[in-house]
Design brief:
six-stranded antiparallel sheet; about 15% strand; alpha+beta; 19 strands; five-stranded mixed sheet; about 30% helix; globular; single chain; 15 helices
Length: about 600
């Protein structure tokens, strides 16, 4: 290993037999870290089996790795805050779970030997690594030359600090999560809020909302500088102060985003709002500790612990979108918020999540209104089960106005793949949510290029309120592209056509996503979860682009001029299309090659060819 980092345990890992084994079995700690050593042959595959549950039956998910392609993570572990534990380095493989890494933390920090897994947190850029899932889902691509920084945080006071090399944590603290992007102005605000907490300025909990939201003020206690939302106090999280508690990473009534994972989405929405186009306030992730936050409850006792959450710059206004008539809002503001919501698939854009800043025009003195979108925790989900009523602007008249030139240029310049890579690198989001970001961005671009309005974009993407169980047009396309891409990759993998199977209603029901899984979680006829390989994903997006363009073409506004007349007259054409592009597209739609006289025609269509 070029990093020369130690293995998980002092002794070298034992020789592993080829074949199938359970990654949750007793051999996991010795297997899951360090690079594989001989006798594993680089040309032979390694098959892993993991027990999963689907429709009440236990299934086994198999994953195959090539020994030559396995890369080892070089991990650097650092404690959160001044908890008194040392930093150290270790190695791990991508399919290693956080449970195994926690064992290494205990081995290096003797004071944590008695701390259970649920009291020890491993974080990558503020995102908690799951105990059972592979860490490769959240970490960047493994490379032996790059060291990945992880942070560990202890909840509770069972830890012994007799080996501490730093002072034990005090009752308050606030700092930006290492590695998470943070503008300099926001970093200064975080430092001012920390100074205020140490001087005794208490955080104030907001009145509304479903989770813990705290207003942090300056040292004088007069001005609010930021809003802190601890992830363990979100709706569905263990320490929720408003009666909506639950287990971490559980899925409640809105299963698109697991509990305790919304803070990361807040940061992602800010990073995706390029150049402040929609006006999302500056947002980052912070570590915070204070007696004013909801304490950890263990065995009837309450303990003050470190928390991870989103920190957003405070917006100076008390007005929300329901305080005015929707018709008075600027068209550009509505469009920009709608563009952001479509891209991130926000499913909680209500009146309270749109602030209104009231001002005066410098020249005329007339009142001006500016919209500011906040609260983006319910975004970047792993599914598209969003209804019209979940997005308040779908009922606003501005959405039926065409996009402006600046908005069209912004949409055309978006790079969905680059945005997904940015979020994977900066905040460690899972691939399912990033894949949906690519789908929605490409749909927005295809629709805008064909002249569709924001309302028409949302109508094709969201479900009708009257039939919330019926998939939208975009959802239907995603499912169809999934099936065709999987079939094509299976054909290439097997070197030719594979036998067809007689239709089985029971097996057919297994193909769709169960209620607990997302739009990209599909099962084959045997009930096995289909894995997303790189060829499979490439085939999926190759088929997605023309299908989204076809949908946009079918839903083009009826009042727009036909592309044929546009090409003939050279007058204005639908937004996003030049006259030449419209002419070519029109010709490709209407002119079909002549049918060969020897072509086979099905009996029920022969009368049409006469």
């Amino acid at each position: 290993n070029p990093c020369h980092v130690p293995p998980l345990y002092g002794a070298p890992p034992p020789r592993l037999p080829l074949g199938r084994f359970s990654i949750r079995g007793p051999s996991l700690p010795a297997m899951a870290v360090g690079a594989f050593e001989p006798p594993l042959s680089p040309g032979k595959p390694i098959v892993l089996a993991r027990a999963t549950s689907h429709d009440g039956a236990k299934q086994f998910k198999r994953s195959t790795f090539s020994a030559s392609s396995l890369e080892t993570y070089c991990l650097r572990f650092r404690p959160v805050g001044a908890q008194g534990f040392p930093s150290f380095e270790a190695a791990a493989l991508p399919f290693c779970s956080a449970r195994v890494l926690k064992a290494k933390v205990r081995a290096q920090c003797r004071g944590l030997i008695g701390v259970p897994d649920d009291r020890l947190r491993l974080l990558y850029r503020g995102v908690e690594l799951p105990d059972d899932g592979p860490v490769g889902k959240h970490l960047p691509e493994a490379s032996g030359e790059c060291i990945v920084d992880l942070q560990f945080m202890v909840l509770g006071r069972e830890a012994s600090h007799h080996e501490a090399i730093e002072p034990v944590a005090t009752d308050c603290g606030l700092s930006v999560c290492e590695g998470v992007p943070c503008p300099e102005n926001l970093r200064v605000a975080v430092q001012c809020c920390e100074e205020a907490l140490r001087k005794g300025v208490e955080p104030m909990m907001a009145r509304g909302g479903t989770g813990g939201v705290y207003m942090l003020r300056d040292a004088e206690g007069q001005r609010t500088l930021g809003v802190f939302k601890p992830k363990d106090e979100e709706a569905g999280a263990p320490q929720n102060p408003r009666g909506y508690g639950g287990r971490e990473n559980s899925r409640g009534e809105r299963p698109g985003v697991p509990s305790a994972q919304r803070a990361t989405r807040e940061v992602a929405a800010y990073l995706l709002d390029h150049e402040g186009f929609a006006g999302v306030p500056m947002t980052t992730l912070v570590h915070a500790r204070h007696t004013g936050f909801v304490p950890l409850r263990v065995g009837g006792a309450e303990e003050v612990v470190w928390k991870v959450g989103g920190f957003q710059a405070f917006v100076e206004t008390e007005e929300t979108a329901d305080n005015f008539g929707a018709h008075v809002y600027p068209v550009a503001d509505v469009h920009r918020i709608g563009i952001l919501d479509v891209r991130i698939a926000s499913f909680d854009r209500n009146h309270g999540n749109v602030l209104v800043r009231v001002g005066r025009d410098a020249g005329t003195g007339a009142r001006t209104l500016r919209l500011v979108p906040i609260d983006h925790g319910c975004s970047l989900p792993d599914r598209l089960a969003i209804c019209h009523g979940d997005v308040v602007w779908m009922a606003w008249p501005q959405t039926k106005q065409p996009f402006g030139e600046e908005e069209l240029r912004y949409i055309a310049a978006l790079d969905a793949s680059a945005d997904a890579a940015l979020l994977a690198q900066q905040v460690g989001l899972e691939r399912c949510g990033l894949r949906l970001l690519e789908v929605t961005t490409r749909w927005l671009q295809a629709a805008a290029a064909r002249g569709l309005t924001l309302f028409e974009v949302g109508k094709a993407m969201y479900r009708e309120d009257a039939s919330p169980s019926t998939p939208s047009a975009v959802e239907v396309i995603v499912e169809a592209c999934f099936d065709t891409a999987r079939a094509s990759t299976e054909i290439r993998r097997k070197g030719g056509l594979y036998p067809t199977v007689t239709y089985d209603p029971v097996a057919s029901q297994l193909r769709g996503p169960p209620p607990c899984d997302g739009i990209f979680h599909r099962y084959d006829s045997r009930g096995t979860l289909v894995e997303w390989s790189k060829p499979f994903e490439e085939a999926f997006f190759r088929r997605l682009a023309p299908e989204l363009d076809r949908l946009a073409r079918e839903r083009a506004p009826a009042q727009a001029l036909s592309r044929r007349s546009v090409a003939a007259s050279g007058s204005s054409c639908p937004a996003g299309l030049s006259a030449n592009e419209a002419s070519v597209s029109d010709a490709s739609e209407e002119k079909l090659p002549p049918r060969s006289s020897g072509a086979y025609v099905p009996p029920h269509l022969r009368f049409q060819s006469q």
